[in-house]
Write the structure tokens for this entry.
Amino acid sequence: MRLAGLRSALAGPFDLVVGHGEAVAISGASGSGKSLFLRMVADLDPNEGEAWLDGRPRAGMRAPDWRARVIYCAAESGWWDSGVGAHFPPGQRVAAAALAGRLGLTADLLTTEVARLSSGERQRLALIRALVRAPAALLLDEPTGALDPAGVARVEALLAERLRAGLVLVLATHDPGQPARLGARQRVMHAGKLEPA
Amino acid sequence: MTPILLTPRDLAISALLLVLDAALSLALRLGLHRQLGIAAARMVIQLLVVGVILRRVFAAASPALTLAVVMLMAAIAAREVAARPEQRLGRFGNLAVAGSAVAGAACLTAVFALTTAIRPMPWYDPRYAVPLAGIILGNVLNAASLALDALLGSVVRERAAVEAQLALGASFGTAMARLARQAIRRGMLPMINQMSAAGLVTLPGIMTGQILAGLEPMEAVKYQILLMFLLAGGGALASVVAVLLTVRLLTDARQRLRLDRLHPR
């Protein structure tokens, strides 16, 4: 994935190249623009500049197609139905149950009510919801903020496996050890600009 | 049967009840007599003015004048719809949505009724067109206003849910479908209630008026049934138009959710 001159009135311009199997970890103070950057890459906020995935320009793709390939997971996950199950397409429920087990979640969580989930369960289910859609790139905003150390290790193990399979990963994180554990290049967001660590 | 015509003396006698109200207000120290007096005076003046205008419009029987009166009524209704939601769409977004929904739905429904069911000669005869447009506008106003308010409120509340779907690759239409459906239902619900309660809980106003004016009850009932259908049709149309237009205004060419276009009042 390649980003060139991506900018909005609030942040940028950003230039970044992340190859298949590569991870980039962005740290920086809250409010420095990490989420704005990830939302811009996903084309959820108005922005200028260009982005490519496997050589295909974003501008040449329908926005939903781009977002299905480059999935953004917000720090606070949104849920559009009262039941957890409705968030997984019928054909992907088996895969979702398998991933739930790997992240330390019981399979019955997939049939419960969203309102009964803990914040850590929501965070992991939101990641599963994205992974079962088999994106080429994942943009994760604080993916392990609500998890205990065991949960963090499980999520990182799963992400590392997906990286080996060719995933493009960009994540915003406050966890100082996370970039090294994922073998990620580090960047620091400072006042709407990406700087080398 | 001819209607019993009211004389100014009849009205003066009924106004005695208002004097009684004022006396009660003074005796019980409700402090309402001033407001009561002003409201009653306003009501009388407003209705007399409308009466004079309607008499002129009916006498002129000019299509252009009739259209102008109906458009003025629609504009006032649209302003009401636009002003109610807590959220505003850009500078004139609410007004554009409300105007299209209210005027479009009311005109379509009124013209449909005048050319198919009621069929006065000519079909745009102001004696039928103006009151019909008025009653349809009143209901359409209510439906569009409820639908618009529901949609703008829910999209702000459920922003995370809508964006979660967009982020996973859903089209904007899919991501908004649930909220749009809820808003349209919200707009149509009062009409369903009105239809199911008609005749049981209340005698509808038009029917009551026509019976008092000397029309045979079954004839009045038939008119009322026709009107209920018109109101249901107009209200549904207005809700759908208001919601679909608003959904369009909330997005852009890249199918984003553009809440930055909404401003709290």
About this structure: Chain B touches chain A through 23 residues (CB under 8 Å). Residues 236 and 251 of chain B are 23 Å apart (CA to CA). Chain B has a mean pLDDT of 90.
